[in-house]
């Protein structure tokens, strides 16, 4: 991995809240940050601007919620749209990362830490963003955000 991308920010896209994590390629680990509020998938850009200004990542990794069979979900298209908006706004290298089962694993981690089941009050989105970013660090395939999902993943058949 290039030194240019030593610190990256990861995102777990959601329609009402977006999980955020910051991580380093040197250690391959990530730490959760406070989630960003969203309204119908549109983030609070002021909050995002502040996070990027504070942490100064050299790249962005956005989770793509594929269906379990590897086909493209509607949320995957929305996550890619979010990724492209991030790329256009911040002019940073942006990548897509398969995030299947990240929320389930995030909930398991949350419970292991003694967390409860009220996920509206106790967000697991940051944990999911950490998992997405750490899986990107471990991956040898880095998919640029401008890549058409159909060129990488299977189309969902009706």
Summarize the structure.
The protein has 158 residues and is α/β, with parallel strands linked by helices. The protein contains 4 helices and 7 strands. The model has no long low-confidence stretch (mean pLDDT 84).
Would you tell me the structural class of the helices and strands? alpha/beta
| Structural domain tally | 1
- Rough outline: globular
User: What's the main sheet like?
Assistant: 7 strands, mixed
CATH top-level class: Alpha Beta
Fold and architecture overview:
By secondary structure, the chain is α/β, with parallel strands linked by helices. Helices cover about 35% and strands about 25% of the residues. It is built from four helices and seven strands. It has helices spanning about 45-55, 75-90, 100-110, 125-140; strands at about 5-10, 15-25, 30-40, 40-45, 60-65, 95-100, 145. It has a seven-stranded mixed β-sheet, with helices on both faces. A hairpin with a 4-residue loop joins strand 1 (about 5-10) and strand 2 (about 15-25). Helix 3 crosses helix 4. The termini are far apart.
Draw up the topology in text.
Blueprint: E1 7-12, E2 17-24, E3 29-39, E4 42-43, H1 45-55, E5 59-64, H2 74-90, E6 94-98, H3 102-112, H4 125-138, E7 143-144
Parallel strand pairs: 1-5, 5-6
Antiparallel strand pairs: 1-2, 2-3, 3-4, 6-7
